[in-house]
Design brief:
With 413 residues, the chain is of the alpha+beta class. It has helices spanning 5-10, 61-76, 81-94, 100-111, 117-130, 132-135, 145-157, 161-180, 210-221, 227-239, 243-247, 272-277, 287-300, 321-328, 341-351, 357-363, 382-400; strands spanning 18-21, 26-30, 36-44, 47-56, 254-255, 260-263, 281-284. The protein contains 17 helices and seven strands.
Length: 413
């Protein structure tokens, strides 16, 4: 039942805090010292949050309900009321209700739920580090291209060209949000599309020469590390997956009898909608991969993670474990990285084994489209992908044994 003012007034303190529920997530929290606080529990972006609505009796029951209704209205618009309140407080402190920082935080609160948590957090960090200290207090309506260019050139001078490009995109998104909410006339960042030199894309180092690849595989076989790191190093080239997906693998995801690893959609590198609604990623296991996993199961199979942390606890192996092993084996970051196995497989599976590129791309969990622009379902072509993974495992064994494997030569006749 909903609270009454009489019940709120007569709520006596107890030895520990307790709550009196009202409605629609609002409640009165009574503290042992006698203080009484209005609170609202709500969910945003899948997380439980709490919003302060005032102190009783200074804030009456009616006023608390009005604030609750205002907050729920923001939720209906896709805005986190807690983040919106933070932006309002900052606006009051700076005296600029429509400052770039206030609008940017409002934009972030509205659109962050559409992104993965890490992507949204990275966007906010870039804004906080590179824009707020310089244009944060400027009203968005008064910003000029020169103001934004000054921000971008500061980043450019540090040599982080790609970051400068990403910040320009973020500023543009904030400005277009300001336009859509009537607080600016145009996106001033649009004038700066050609103001920065192109970013030099640096790919992960990967070994794509067969003889060198065979040498690397033999070095891995001879590496004297822990059993879990050794197994991870030997499995990584066989599975086509990113290091993070491998490190966080759980035993419940594996069916060794069926030779299949099912990677949950939420752990794949996808947009948020793909993580929440997309299919799981199927990884057929070669005979070589199953053999390694069966041996590892004897060591870690009673726990949650296939590769548990050496420090104990319910944690998986560190993200630096395999990188550190590569360094100890004498490979620099410019020569080979754990992430480079995907590029190795993408190159040699097509060039040396003649596997259709579409099959390899599907196994890498890349989106593949046909000539009509339709995306192939990631669960399709499973038989072809099983054949790919076994051929790849056999090919790596041949290279490791020192065999000379000739590149695939398509029949052009």
């Amino acid at each position: 039942m909903a609270l009454t003012d009489t019940a709120a007034r007569n709520a006596a303190p107890k030895a520990s805090p307790y709550r009196l529920g009202d409605s629609a997530g609002m409640y009165l929290e009574v503290q042992p010292a006698g203080s009484k606080y209005w609170r609202l529990r709500y969910r945003f972006a899948g997380k439980q949050k709490t919003l302060a609505l005032g102190v009783y009796p200074e804030t009456t029951l009616k006023q608390a309900r009005e604030r609750r209704d205002d907050a729920r209205q923001l939720l209906g618009q896709g805005i986190d009321p807690g983040a919106a309140r933070k932006a309002q407080k900052q606006a009051q402190q700076t005296g600029a209700a429509n400052s770039f920082e206030v609008v940017a935080r409002e934009w972030w609160a509205k659109f962050a739920p559409t992104l993965s948590e890490s992507h949204a957090a990275r966007n906010l960090r870039r804004l906080e580090k590179h824009t707020f200290p310089y244009i944060g207090t400027c009203p968005v309506a008064d910003l000029a291209p020169a103001d934004v260019l000054n921000v971008l050139q500061r980043i450019e001078k540090t040599g982080h060209i790609e970051t400068a490009h990403r910040v320009r995109v973020l500023v543009g998104q904030v400005m277009r949000f300001a336009v859509s909410t009537g607080r600016a006339q145009r996106d001033v960042a649009a004038d700066l599309r050609d103001a920065l030199p192109p970013a030099q894309v640096k790919h992960h180092a990967a070994v794509t020469e067969p003889v060198a690849l065979g040498a690397l595989l033999r070095t891995i076989d001879g590496y004297n590390g822990t059993a879990t790191v050794n197994a991870a190093l030997r499995l990584a080239p066989l599975l086509f997956q990113r290091p993070g997906e491998l490190r966080q693998a759980e035993w419940t995801e594996f069916d060794l009898d069926a030779a299949m690893w099912t990677v949950p959609a939420e752990r794949m590198k996808r947009k948020k909608a793909g993580k929440e609604n997309g299919p799981d990623h199927l990884v057929p296991l070669s005979r070589q991969a199953v053999e390694i996993l069966r041996g590892l199961y004897l060591l870690t199979g009673r726990g949650r993670f296939v590769f548990p942390s050496l420090r104990g606890g319910d944690r998986c192996m560190s993200d630096m474990a395999m990188s550190a092993a590569f360094k100890r084996m004498g490979y620099t970051a410019d020569e080979a990285l754990p992430h480079g196995w995907r590029a190795t497989a993408r190159t040699l599976a097509v060039e040396a084994l003649g596997i259709p590129a579409e099959v390899v791309e599907l196994q890498l969990s890349h989106e593949v489209r046909d000539s009509l622009g339709r995306a192939y379902n990631r669960t399709q072509w499973l038989d072809a992908r099983r054949e790919l993974m076994q051929k790849w495992g056999d090919y790596l064994d041949q290279l490791k044994a020192g065999a000379t494997v000739l590149p695939f030569a398509p029949n052009t006749q």
